Structure formats: C-alpha cells, structure tokens
Amino acid sequence: MIELAIYDMDRTVTRTGTYTPFLLHAAARLAPWRLLLAPAVPFVMAAYAAKLIDRRRLKEINQRLLLGGTVPRGTLAPVTESFADLILRTNVLPGALRQIAEDRAAGRRLVLATASYRFYVEPIAARLGFDDVIATGSVTGLDDIIHARIDGENNYGPAKLRLIQAWMEAEGIARANARIRFYSDHVSDVPVLDWADEPFAVNASPKLARMAAKRGWPALNWSA
C-alpha cells in the first residue's frame, strides 16, 4: 500500500496567498517600472468577482501586467529562488512544518498540489522536502520562454482532483493500492477532500469549517 500525503499550499502550508506576492517580488527585481501597473490588479480582481472573466484568465492577465507576456526561464530562476527563500523565512506555518516532518517520518510520499504556478512552486516545495509537485503549468515556447498563458487546466476546484488522478496514473499508482490523506484550507478543494481516505480541514475558511463539522473531517490549526 502506497501512503500519500497531499498538501494544498496557499493558506494551508503558508500564512497567506503567494501568487500576487510572487508577481510583485518578480516585478520589483526584473522590471520595476511594471509596479506602476500594480494598481490595475484590483480591477482585474473585480472583473473576476463580477464573473466577467474566469480564474484562469485572471491569472494570465495579472502575469502579463507584472511579468510581461514572456520571460526566459533562466531570467526568472534567480527570482523564484529568492522568493522561495522569502516564503520559508516569513510565510510558512509552524504546524505545517511539523506535519510535513511527521508524514515524512511515517514514510508517506509528500505531494504539493496547488493552483499556483509550477515555475515558482517547485523551489518552495524543494525547500520543504516535498517529493512531487502538482501545480498549474505555463505554456513554454522555444528556448524555454515562459508565456503568460496556462498550459492545460488551472489546478483549482474539480480540476485539482483530475490533475492528481492524472499524476497518479502517470506514476503508476492505482487508487486501490493507495492510502491518501489530503490537507486544505478552502472549500474549493472539497472534491479532493471527499475523494481522500483521510481528509483534513486546515486553517479552514468559514464555509469549509462548517462543512468539515457536518462531515466529521478533522479540523487542524497550524498557526500555533
């Protein structure tokens, strides 16, 4: 039996979201003039809230504003590394570190499954000791140029379950031969929580906390 411990990242492992902070971090180091475009970000968020654009388009527009339409991976690499260092110093919940260590000691395969972009999640996951990353991909052009376009599905909501299942199939892990625990803070991850053998509501949003209480899911607080 294969033991998997799958973690959401933003507000589960970290105190806050990481996507907009990463874009601001990268813009400040690669093209500081793009910070002048940052006031447009709340308007993009408002368009999403009004359902004028979907979450996928929201992320693509914000990336284009603050990183540009394309950026070479080699140019971005030092920025993703410095951002990962910043996250580890300032934004990881102490309870998450303890649970990651416990799952590792128990022999579980550690998987970080997040809607954030793979190109900046991988250095964070490496520092935390995760074995695998399932994240939102980016269209990559010739010479390893990262485009402000999502490749495949945005790893959010029901898509997260589909991408986890696709990853398991690619890894040759049959569901019947796996014992899966999943940690998340948000109701968008209910499809994966329902599917997991051991679901945990961590630092739960109010809606998820109510649902967890009704379904008997353990509620954890990793802030302490």
Task: Describe the overall structure.
The protein is globular. The protein has 224 residues and is α/β, with parallel strands linked by helices. Strands 2-5-4-3-1-6-7-8 form an 8-stranded mixed β-sheet. It has 9 helices and 8 strands. The protein has one domain (2-220): 3-Layer(aba) Sandwich (Rossmann fold), CATH 3.40.50. The protein has helices at 19-30, 41-49, 55-67, 73-90, 94-105, 118-128, 158-171, 190-195, 206-215; strands at residues 2-7, 70-72, 109-117, 132-141, 145-151, 178-184, 198-202, 219-220.
Architecture (CATH level 2) name: 3-Layer(aba) Sandwich
Write the CATH fold name.
Answer: Rossmann fold
| Helix content range | 40-55%
Report the average pLDDT across residues: 96
- The SSE order reads EHHHEHHEHEEHEHEHE
Tags for this model:
224 residues; alpha/beta; Rossmann fold; 9 helices; 47% helix; 22% strand
What topology does this entry show?
Layout (H helix, E strand, L loop, with lengths): L1 E6 L11 H12 L10 H9 L5 H13 L2 E3 H18 L3 H12 L3 E9 H11 L3 E10 L3 E7 L6 H14 L6 E7 L5 H6 L2 E5 L3 H10 L3 E2 L4
Helix pairs in contact: 1-3, 1-4, 2-3, 4-6
How would you sum up this structure in a few lines?
This protein is an alpha/beta fold. It is built from 9 helices and 8 strands. Strands 2-5-4-3-1-6-7-8 form an 8-stranded mixed beta sheet.
